[in-house]
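Input.
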Amino acid sequence: MTRVIHTGDTHVGYAQYHSPVRRQDFLDAFAAVIDDAIEDEVDAVVHAGDLFHDRRPELGDLMGTITVLRRLDDAGVPFLAVVGNHESTRGGQWLDLFERLGLATRLDDEPTVVGDTAFYGLDHVPVSRRDDLGYAFADHDAEYAALVAHGLFEPFGYADWDTEEVLAESDVAFDAMLLGDNHTPDSAEVDDTWVTYPGSTERASASEREGRGYNLVTFDADAAGGDDRVEIRRRALDTRPFVFVEADLREGEGAARVREKVRQHDLDDAVVLVDVTGDGDPVTPAAIEEFATDEGALIARVTDRREVETDAEVDVSFADPEDAVRERVEEMALSEAALDVEEAVRSGTVPDTNVREAVKRRVEERIDDLDAFDRGEEADGDESDGERSTSEGDETEPEDGEPELAVDETDGEPTGGDDETATTSATDTDGQVSMEDYL
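Output.
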């Protein structure tokens, strides 16, 4: 018997609503999964991609993740993982660095056997490059086999990857596909193979209303009745509370009614999201947000979904104005070099007086790498993390399970995750500081 925790889409480093507290929440949720793995003495933790929210995580996020992984390693529990669309680059992957440190195993087409189960990996691959995939996996002699992959697979929402095709063309008969990218947890059986998503470990968008958690997957050759089986059980995580307030205003009702609706909830340290609908008077979002934070909310965001025709001046609150820019940048499918320039111009860490020099330096670093000037992959609806839903600008978030690359969570969406990425070592800088130097 082999028991593993199946998790993914932890998005460590995501400063949702530009809040350092929310940034810490994502790391804490990942740490909680690891704590459960150690306490339950599972055979492995399997991570299905998007460990980080950004391909260039900040030093604090890297060090925090290393601390968590060291705790898991000290307990003798292996960490098996693949690269997701949020973190993939044309250069080396952070997962490669963790492997060099002895803290992780990057799954690929060779089996990694834990207990009586062989685990294989398939990094995120853009839709435009999937026709070249051969699904050729090396043989194994274990009782079970599981494919860990990152993408939007059928029969789940926003799917763009044919699960039946993967299973039919694969050289290995998989008993389970342990997936990441869709933030909505779900399971289904396809051609006698269990296919499952654990969902994200923290709410990365307003569409993720259900509680967060992970899967406990058991491969049991001695199941009751003598039949081999794969058992998938979902476990909940205690994460930051989100309060969803629906304020449907009747004619003559306005801000006072919205405040009354907000006051009916426990707001202590919660993220409060207020939707205003109906035929009532215009509402100033900023005033309601201030009221909610005064009542104890950590963060408050108000969205007035009505089309109000009025001559009066109405204040508009943009919760995350940079998200619109990020979304547009992703749609433009810029090259790696262009993304470097874009980041230097908008980065809050580069003083205005140094922007020109920073841009010049970044272009010079890449001048010998012609591939860096190739346009990136189109979104392909690809970040649909079943969520690609990790959008930072939660006010325009996709619906549950929507592709993650799709909306603002892309934060300079990666273009890698393909075979080219898989063969690049952690020391390949691609015009960037090496991972070792970064740390």
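The mean pLDDT is 81.
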